Predict the structure.
Amino acid sequence: MILDKVKTDILDPLGAAGWSALLARHGLDITVPIYNLEEELSRTLRVDRTVPGFEDFTTGGCRAVQAGDPAASLLYHALASPSCRPDPVAGKDPVFPSLEQLDLLENFIYSRARAKLADFKDPVLAVFAFQYRQAGRTTHRKHADMVYSRTGLARVGTHVPHYDGATRAFTPNPGAGVKGFRVTPSRYAIYIAERRTRGADGAVLRPSGLDLELTFLFPVHKVFAGDECLFTTGADDKLQPLQIARVKFAEIHVNEKLARVHDYQHGENDGYVPLPASPVFDIAKPPFVRRSDTDKSMVSLVEVGASCLVVPVAGPFASLVHQQVNGKDELVRFKVPPPKEIRGRSNRYWSTLELTAKGNSRAAPEYLNIRQEVIATDPPELADLNRLPTAEFDKKVLQHGGYEAAHFADHTCDGAIAAYRITGIDLPSYCAFSLVSAVDYFPLVDQVEVEEWVEKRQLMPTGLANNSLMFPQGGPQPMSDGRFQLDDEKPVQGTTLTYQIPNCQLPHPITPMRKAFSLEESSIYTATAIVGTPSRGAALCMGASASPVSAKALSWLPDAAANVYAPGWDVSQHRTNGRNMMVSYGLGSPFPEDAKLCAALNSFWPAVAPDSGRTYGFRPPKPGQPLRNLFTSLPLTDAELGYHAKHPMVVAQEVTEQTGWDGDYGPYIDGDARGRFVYAANALRADLTRAAYDGKLHYAGLDLVSTREFILRLNALAWVRDLCDEWCRFTTGRVLNHRQSGWWLVAFQKAETWAGWTSKVFPALSAAQKGSGYVLVFATVGPGEEFEAPPLRLRYPLRDMIEFHISNAEVLAPEGDGDGATVFARHNGGKVFEITGALKWYEVPS
C-alpha cells in the first residue's frame, strides 16, 4: 500500500529531521505506528496558521491529508511550500523533501479520493507542467495551491541542474564566483482533466471575458501506478480497484534553426542565405536539424515517480558544429551575403545579419552572427572580425560580406511530452508543449508580476494596460496571457483572441507519423494558460507569498515567460496557413545574438530581461543622421553591467574590476589631458555570441533581483525623470523626461542605506539623505570617437552632467505610495538642490 511507503519513505526520515516537531504544533503526530497512521492523517486538526509558513494554508484545510486535494492537506503544504521549514535539529543542517517524496505524497492524497472515471465530466488524459505555489501566485490568489499549464519551460545552462530543497525548486546560479548558469528543468505529470469553459470561479490565472469562447482542460486527478489510483463499481456496488501499470512518458524536441536559415520556404523566408557551393552540406541532417530522439546532447527525460522532468543537457550557449561531407568532418559555415534591402529593410541590423521577418511571423531565425570568420586552415580557425580596424571592419562586415562565417548552434528547442497508453483508462490523451528556452536573467521576477504592476499603475483591467508608456518597445505581457491580446483597432479599448497555438508541426513523441498537436483539439488555444482549482477558503494573511524564502521559488510555468514576439525570448512566432504557432526556430542563431539586441533596445521583447541600453548609450551612427540615444527603462547597476579597470570606483579601490552579465563592461566617466569623457562599449563590436562561446556570460547578480527591487528600479527611474524634468529644463536648458532627450544614464548605484553609504567617488549630496536610495548620473556628450585599437570601446566628450540621489527610495516600491521620497540634485558639480515636487526645489546649504 502507498500508506506504508509514505511512512517509510517520507514520514520516518523527515520526521527525525525536524518535520515532526513542526507538524506537532498543529496537533499532528507523524510518528504514530503504521496501524494508527491512516486515522491520524485523516482526523480533524487545530491548525495554527500563525506558525511561519502556514499563513497562506487554506482555511478550508483541517486535516493532514484531504482526499484528492493536496492544497487542503496540511502535510502536503508543510512539505511542498517554499515558505515552510523544519524545526531546527541541534548540530544538523535542515533537511527538505525531495521531488520523489513530494510525488509519492501527491499520489497518496489522490489515492484517498477513491475516484472513479464516472465521477468526472467530459474527462480526457492530458500532460501538465505543475507547481505548488504561495497564495499570491495561484489562479485565485486566495491561498496556497497547485497550478498547472499544458506548457512548461525548461531553460538551458552551462552547468548541471541542482534541486534546492529549501525553495522546492531548481537553483539557477552555479555558485559564487562561477561563470555560467545552471540548467533549470520543468516538471510534468499526467492527469485526468475535465474539458470545459472557464466559468467564474477563479480557476484560470488572469481571466478574460473572451475565455467564455474557449475550451480549457482542468486537471482533477493525478494518474499513478498501482491499484489505488482509480476504482470502478462492481456488480455488488462495491468499489473495485483498477490496476494501473507504470506511468511512462516520452518526449520529442526539435531544433531546426540552421536548416531554416538556408531554406527559401516557398517565399516565406525571402531573406534566406544560399548554401555554399562547397562543401555541399545537407540541411536535412544534423546539425541543421536536430531531434532529441537521435541527438542525446539536447534533453533528457528523467522519471520522478509518477511524474517526469525535462532536463536540458548542460553545455555552451554557443557551439561550433560539424557535418561529415564526403568522409571529411567539415566545420559548418555559410557565405555572408552582401547588404541588400528586403521589403524595405536592410539585411544588416547593426553588425548582425537580419533575415527580415514578415510582420510578426518568423519562418527562420531573424538574426545571425556574422563576425566570426572561418579561415581555411587545417583544421579551420576562427578570426574574430570585431578586432579589425574600422575601415576594414566596415568594408568587410557592413558593406560587402562575401566571406565565410561560422554557424553556431545553441540548445534551445521546442517539443512535446506524451504519456504512453495507460491500461484501464480509455480516454483521449493530449500532449504538453515543452519549451527549452534561453536563460532567464531575472529568475525571481515573473513577467506576470510586472504586467500586473503596470495595469495597477494605470488603473486598467487585465490585458488593457498601455505598456508603451513604460517600455518604448516590447512589454511584460506573460505567455500565460497568450490566448488574448490588446485590440487597438476597436473603437472602445478591448482585447481580442489570438488563436495562438503550440508548434503544430511537431511529431508526436510516441507515434511520430502523426502530429503532437491537432487543430481538431478544441483546447489547443489555451495551451499556455495557467489553470487551477477554485479556492477552498482563504489565507490568514498574504504575507507568506512575499517572504524572503518563498520569493526564491523559481517557476517553470508560462507566467514567468514572455508573450512578446519580435522575435521573442522564450519562444518566437510563425504564422503559416492562418495559424499563429509558437516556435523556437524564429529566435536568433545562436540565441545570444538575439539577446544582445534585445537588451540594448530597452529589454525590447520581454520586459523582464536585461536592459543594456546604457552600456552603449547610442545606436550605431548613420551617415548624415544625428545620434539616437538608447533609452533605459530598467536601470542595471554599474556592478551588473561590469566595472572596467579604469572605472573611478575601481581606481579608488572601492570595488574590483569585473565583467557584467554580458561579459562586457558598463559606461563610466573619466578624464585625461584632453578633457572628460564617457567611455562605453562599441555597439558594433560587442559580441554576445563570442562571449558565450568563450564562456564569459554570467548572472552578475541579476539572479538576486526580486520582483520588488525590479519594480522599484523601474518606478524610481520613471519618477526621477518626471519629478526633475522642470528643474532640468531650468538648470540645463534641456528636457529630461523624453526618450530622445540626449541624457545618457552613465552611472547607477544602489545605496542599501544612506547611513552606511561610504563611497568617495559618489559621495552623498546631503546629510539629509536617509533610508535607502539610488545614485543616478546622467550625461550629454559629443560624437563618439575611437581611442584604442581594436576599437572595442568608444569615448564621448562630456558636455553636461547631472547627478540625482534618491532619498527614502523604499516608498517607491510596489507596496508604497511614493510619499516621503525626495531627490537631491547637482549640475556639473555645482550647487545641490532638494527637489520635492515638479516645481518645487530648494538650494541645500553647504
Observations:
- The longest strand covers residues 793-807.
- Confidence is low (pLDDT under 50) at residues 543-551.
- The chain has 14 helices and 46 strands.
- The CA atoms of residues 689 and 802 lie 35 Å apart.
